[in-house]
Specification:
With 131 residues, the chain is mostly helical. It has one domain. Helix content is 79%, strand content 0%. Keywords: Membrane, Transmembrane, Transmembrane helix.
Protein backbone atom coordinates (compact mmCIF):
# COMPACT_ATOMS: atom_id res chain seq x y z
CA UNK A 1 0.00 0.00 0.00
CA UNK A 2 1.33 3.46 -0.84
CA UNK A 3 1.90 6.00 1.90
CA UNK A 4 -0.65 8.36 0.34
CA UNK A 5 -3.36 5.70 0.26
CA UNK A 6 -2.50 4.65 3.81
CA UNK A 7 -2.75 8.27 4.98
CA UNK A 8 -6.17 8.79 3.44
CA UNK A 9 -7.43 5.51 4.91
CA UNK A 10 -5.92 6.37 8.30
CA UNK A 11 -7.74 9.70 8.33
CA UNK A 12 -10.96 8.07 7.17
CA UNK A 13 -10.77 5.42 9.88
CA UNK A 14 -10.08 8.06 12.52
CA UNK A 15 -13.05 10.14 11.38
CA UNK A 16 -15.31 7.08 11.28
CA UNK A 17 -14.34 6.16 14.84
CA UNK A 18 -15.11 9.72 15.95
CA UNK A 19 -18.40 9.67 14.05
CA UNK A 20 -19.48 6.65 16.08
CA UNK A 21 -18.06 7.70 19.46
CA UNK A 22 -18.99 11.41 19.24
CA UNK A 23 -22.76 10.92 19.31
CA UNK A 24 -22.38 8.36 22.10
CA UNK A 25 -20.39 10.94 24.06
CA UNK A 26 -22.97 13.69 23.48
CA UNK A 27 -26.17 11.69 23.86
CA UNK A 28 -25.25 9.08 26.48
CA UNK A 29 -22.20 10.09 28.49
CA UNK A 30 -22.26 13.90 28.69
CA UNK A 31 -25.74 14.17 30.26
CA UNK A 32 -24.75 11.64 32.93
CA UNK A 33 -21.13 12.49 33.78
CA UNK A 34 -20.54 15.94 32.26
CA UNK A 35 -18.88 17.16 29.10
CA UNK A 36 -15.24 17.02 30.19
CA UNK A 37 -15.49 13.54 31.72
CA UNK A 38 -17.35 12.30 28.64
CA UNK A 39 -14.65 13.78 26.40
CA UNK A 40 -11.96 12.00 28.43
CA UNK A 41 -13.81 8.68 28.15
CA UNK A 42 -14.16 9.16 24.40
CA UNK A 43 -10.49 10.14 24.14
CA UNK A 44 -9.40 6.93 25.86
CA UNK A 45 -11.36 4.84 23.36
CA UNK A 46 -10.16 6.97 20.43
CA UNK A 47 -6.52 6.69 21.54
CA UNK A 48 -6.72 2.91 21.41
CA UNK A 49 -8.56 2.83 18.10
CA UNK A 50 -6.09 5.29 16.57
CA UNK A 51 -3.19 3.14 17.72
CA UNK A 52 -4.72 0.08 16.02
CA UNK A 53 -5.41 2.04 12.83
CA UNK A 54 -1.92 3.55 12.72
CA UNK A 55 -0.31 0.18 13.30
CA UNK A 56 -2.15 -1.28 10.32
CA UNK A 57 -1.67 1.68 8.02
CA UNK A 58 2.11 2.03 8.45
CA UNK A 59 2.89 -1.68 8.25
CA UNK A 60 5.49 -2.03 5.54
CA UNK A 61 6.27 1.70 5.46
CA UNK A 62 9.72 1.91 6.99
CA UNK A 63 10.93 5.29 5.77
CA UNK A 64 10.28 8.29 7.99
CA UNK A 65 9.18 10.23 4.92
CA UNK A 66 6.46 7.67 4.15
CA UNK A 67 5.26 7.74 7.73
CA UNK A 68 5.20 11.54 7.57
CA UNK A 69 2.94 11.28 4.51
CA UNK A 70 0.60 8.95 6.43
CA UNK A 71 0.56 11.28 9.45
CA UNK A 72 0.08 14.46 7.41
CA UNK A 73 -2.61 13.12 5.12
CA UNK A 74 -4.40 11.47 8.03
CA UNK A 75 -4.55 14.79 9.86
CA UNK A 76 -5.65 16.69 6.74
CA UNK A 77 -8.42 14.17 6.01
CA UNK A 78 -9.72 14.32 9.60
CA UNK A 79 -9.69 18.13 9.69
CA UNK A 80 -11.38 18.38 6.28
CA UNK A 81 -14.11 15.90 7.19
CA UNK A 82 -14.64 17.54 10.59
CA UNK A 83 -15.02 20.92 8.86
CA UNK A 84 -17.56 19.52 6.41
CA UNK A 85 -19.50 17.91 9.26
CA UNK A 86 -19.49 21.16 11.26
CA UNK A 87 -20.75 23.04 8.21
CA UNK A 88 -23.53 20.49 7.64
CA UNK A 89 -24.57 20.65 11.31
CA UNK A 90 -24.56 24.46 11.22
CA UNK A 91 -26.68 24.52 8.07
CA UNK A 92 -29.18 22.05 9.54
CA UNK A 93 -29.50 23.95 12.81
CA UNK A 94 -28.38 20.97 14.91
CA UNK A 95 -25.19 22.73 16.01
CA UNK A 96 -27.25 25.38 17.82
CA UNK A 97 -28.80 22.75 20.10
CA UNK A 98 -25.47 21.65 21.56
CA UNK A 99 -23.82 23.46 24.45
CA UNK A 100 -20.51 25.07 23.47
CA UNK A 101 -17.42 23.02 24.24
CA UNK A 102 -15.47 24.09 27.26
CA UNK A 103 -11.74 24.70 27.31
CA UNK A 104 -11.08 21.24 28.79
CA UNK A 105 -13.02 19.53 26.00
CA UNK A 106 -11.20 21.57 23.36
CA UNK A 107 -7.85 20.68 24.89
CA UNK A 108 -8.70 16.99 24.84
CA UNK A 109 -9.62 17.28 21.15
CA UNK A 110 -6.33 19.00 20.32
CA UNK A 111 -4.39 16.34 22.23
CA UNK A 112 -6.16 13.64 20.19
CA UNK A 113 -5.20 15.38 16.95
CA UNK A 114 -1.58 15.48 18.12
CA UNK A 115 -1.80 11.76 18.98
CA UNK A 116 -3.27 11.04 15.53
CA UNK A 117 -0.30 12.80 13.92
CA UNK A 118 2.37 11.26 16.17
CA UNK A 119 1.24 7.63 16.02
CA UNK A 120 2.55 6.76 12.53
CA UNK A 121 6.03 7.58 13.83
CA UNK A 122 5.61 5.70 17.12
CA UNK A 123 4.07 2.34 16.23
CA UNK A 124 6.15 -0.78 15.58
CA UNK A 125 7.44 -1.38 12.09
CA UNK A 126 6.54 -5.09 12.08
CA UNK A 127 2.77 -4.70 12.24
CA UNK A 128 0.61 -6.81 9.97
CA UNK A 129 0.14 -5.16 6.57
CA UNK A 130 -3.20 -4.93 4.81
CA UNK A 131 -3.33 -6.34 1.28
Amino acid sequence: MTAARAGVLYGGLAFAAGAVLGPLRELVLAPRIGGAAAAMAEAAAMAGLLWLAARRMVAGIDAARGRAVVAGLGLVVVLALESLLALALDMSGLAATRAPRGLAEQGIGIALLAWLFALPFLVRRRAVALP
